[in-house]
Task: structure prediction
Amino acid sequence: MQSVDIRTLGVVEYTEALEMMAGLQQQRINDEIPDTILFLEHPEIVTIGPRARNDGIAPPSDYKSHPVDRGGGLTWHGPGQLVVYPIVLWNKEDEKSVADIISKIESWVIATLDVLGVKGYRDDRMQGVWVDDKKICSIGLSFLRWVSRHGFTVNYATPKGRVENLAGCGLTESTTTSMKSLGYPTTRTMLEDALLKTLAPELGRKKA
Result:
């Protein structure tokens, strides 16, 4: 089984993370590093994807924002949200398309929530993972030679009213929330431990 380097970071500015991801992606393409997954958080910021820009959608004026090149519309980042960036070469038999890879990540998050005693599932309204009719996980990747950049988020304890007040990725306000707001108290450590526990069975990769 392929090994993956897990890097657990603290709070990282979004622009700093962009530079970090770009460098790691090129290193992975050059086979200078193994598959690498970053766990981190960002100070509050809303990323504006091509879909939002094309539709002329912008976040409210009291949200700091930054344009981004991966797909999607508006995505909130901030405290109480674990951000997972897989710098991974997707080359397995069940990773032949972007849809396959998205589905695999969804399965990983659903299995992770199951470890925590929370029932997560897919919803036809939007890719990602949902709990109790609310979206708690968003996914957005960018690829170069099948090595991914960007990744997914899991809202475990976000400040009340911030992500809820944002109509992100084509969804109405209050559709996206956090596990804490739904009555599932979870810490970042609990979430990371569960992700590592389900890494091998769901992604077919083991922690180095």
About this structure: The two ends are 10 Å apart (CA to CA).
